[in-house]
Design brief:
Number of strands of chain B: 10
Structural class of chain A: mainly alpha
Shape of chain A: globular
Radius of gyration of chain B: 16 Å
Largest interface: A-B, 49 and 58 residues
Mean pLDDT of chain A: 93
Structural class of chain B: alpha+beta
Number of helices of chain A: 8
Order of helices and strands of chain A: EHHHHHHHH
Order of helices and strands of chain B: EHEEEEHEEHHEHEE
Oligomer: heterodimer
Strand content of chain B: 25-35%
Distance between the termini of chain A: 22 Å
Mean pLDDT of chain B: 92
Shape of chain B: globular
Strand content of chain A: under 5%
Chain lengths: 268, 193
């Protein structure tokens, strides 16, 4: 007779999924919003011809992201989100994200309407959009009890976020972004590979996490990394196909890491 | 100011779940979630079998990872060292739920995050938490860690073994387990003392 361990509970344990599909969507939308805002900042600082469409798009993406978060929130009718801006919480990634998105929205509006010093707004927008891009990785890596949310996500999330936004921009004739998209795609693939190696060579919890990732969607994660690595080879001849590959890869990789990454090893 | 803590003597716990029921009623915990639950673990091979009970809840960490991640300050530690959520300022973002290594927090359908409060409202009236008062085997001890004569201090001093869950997380729980079966302990969790 083999030795087994059977664990049951009296009373529900709160170990189910706590972030659902709207949050997964948010983690992609915030990347789009931050990435497009950074592109606006780049254009504001470097271009002589600067239109209203791109900054308006960045504001629209931020608004869409806020609507998704609001619709998902259990506190949507309590208006408590105002406390995000009435307190100073630098240890909280979400606090940084909130200020990054709010600042990007204000600066995007100023740039869209052409009010005030464009280059100053552009410089400030570099800061706020970078905050928005960095915050998902910060929010995930802060949870040390969840082995799949490793510190490497501090780099992986902003890089794939920017790749997602600028890859999509390639589809809209922002051709000068091709070299940057190529670099970002390779960096994403490299960071994704390092992430997997880090789990495989990590402690017991990390290896259990890798097993969980693999059983729940590991092949899809590898496929997402492969798509991002393959895309640069197509950039010159088939830019649209390359753009689609990086967007699909970035969305898939980020979604899997947020959804499956919430895994926490069971208490014995 | 006190430094409230709780100790659960696993050698005395019979897994009756009276504490879980008392908690649910006292704190009006919604269906489908819990502030306190009982883990039942059967292991081994006949005739060498083991059945262990372990009540689990918020560990009331001295260094709680759920507090710094809160973007509004709703998650906080009060002057008595109890980790609480201010429902008025909570935005139910779930950052604290993600950060808790013990799965002790949940979304309350009323729009905030819920968790064990050591029955703060009862402490204000000079009473002990509902789970402590209800336990028929008196396996729970509660009190001020800074008071050497408190129930919890005396129980910890008298225990042969003291464990905490996930010590590697560095959270320094103020809920400790006493006299876990020496052969099995608390599984992979190491000894606190």
């Amino acid at each position: 007779m083999t030795s087994t361990t059977v664990t049951t509970f009296y009373g529900a344990v709160n170990n189910g999924a706590f972030w659902h599909w709207p949050t997964l969507l948010h983690f992609c939308l915030v990347a789009l919003a931050g990435g497009v805002a950074l592109l606006v900042a780049y254009r504001a600082l470097t271009s002589e011809r600067f239109g209203w469409r791109l900054p308006a798009l960045s504001v629209a993406l931020i608004a869409l992201d806020m609507i998704v978060l609001w619709a998902e929130s259990l506190a949507r009718w309590r208006l408590t989100h105002v406390y995000l801006f009435l307190s100073i919480r630098p240890a909280s990634a979400i606090w940084w994200g909130a200020w990054g998105l709010a600042g990007s929205a204000v600066l995007g509006l100023l740039l869209a309407f052409g009010w005030g010093p464009r280059r100053l707004w552009g410089a400030l927008l570099v800061v706020t959009s970078t905050m928005a891009l960095l915050y998902p990785g910060l929010a995930l890596a802060a949870n040390s009890a969840r082995p799949l949310w490793t510190p490497l996500l501090l780099a992986f999330m902003p890089v794939t976020g920017l790749l997602l936004a600028w890859g999509l921009a390639l589809l809209f004739r922002q051709r000068d972004l091709r070299p940057a998209v190529g670099v970002l795609a390779l960096a994403s693939g490299l960071l994704g590979g390092l992430y997997l190696v880090g789990l495989a060579t990590g402690d017991l919890a990390a290896r259990e996490g890798l097993h969980h990732l693999w059983s729940e969607g590991g092949p899809w994660f590898v496929a997402a990394l492969a798509a991002m690595v393959l895309a640069p080879t197509l950039l010159r001849r088939y830019p649209a196909a390359a753009a689609l590959l990086v967007v699909a890869g970035a969305v898939l990789a980020r979604t899997l890491l947020v959804e499956i990454g919430a895994y926490m090893p069971p208490l014995l | 100011m006190a430094r409230y803590a709780m100790a659960i003597d696993l050698s005395a716990c019979v897994g009756c779940a009276a504490c879980a029921v008392a908690c649910k009623l006292e704190n009006e915990v919604p269906p489908g979630v819990s502030r306190l639950w009982i883990r039942l673990e059967e292991s081994g091979t006949f005739p060498d079998l083991s059945l262990q009970y372990r009540p689990e809840q918020c560990m009331q960490c001295a260094d709680p990872p759920c507090v710094p991640v809160c973007p509004t300050g709703a998650s906080h530690i009060n002057e008595d060292g109890i980790v609480l959520v201010d429902a008025e300022t909570c935005i139910a973002c779930g950052a604290c739920i993600a950060a808790c290594p013990y799965g002790a927090r949940y979304f309350d359908e009323r729009g905030f995050v819920g968790k064990c409060t050591f029955c703060e409202h009862r402490l204000a009236e000079g009473r002990v938490p509902a789970c402590v008062e209800t336990c028929p085997t008196l396996c729970r001890s509660f009190g001020d860690l800074d008071d050497p004569d408190s129930d919890v201090s005396r129980a910890i001093r008298a225990a042969q073994r003291v464990d905490v869950l996930k010590p590697e997380q560095g959270t320094h729980p103020k809920l400790v387990y006493l006299n876990a079966p020496a052969r099995f302990g608390l599984g992979r969790e190491g000894m606190a003392r």
